[in-house]
Amino acid sequence: LKIITDIISFCKEHVPAWNTMSISGYHIREAGSPAVL
Predict the structure, then answer these.
(1) Which of 1, 18, 19, 28 keeps 20 to 30 A from 12, CA to CA?
(2) CA distance 9 to 3
(3) Res 6: pLDDT
(4) Measured in whole angstroms, how far is the alpha carbon of residue 26 from the centre of its chain?
């Protein structure tokens, strides 16, 4: 987990135009989220 936060922090500072987070609707649904939020 530490390496993930380090990578996100590095990219936030050095590569500002890059989206470091990707949220997949499939994974959210698998976790139990309702279809309509």
Answers:
(1) 28
(2) 10
(3) 92
(4) 14
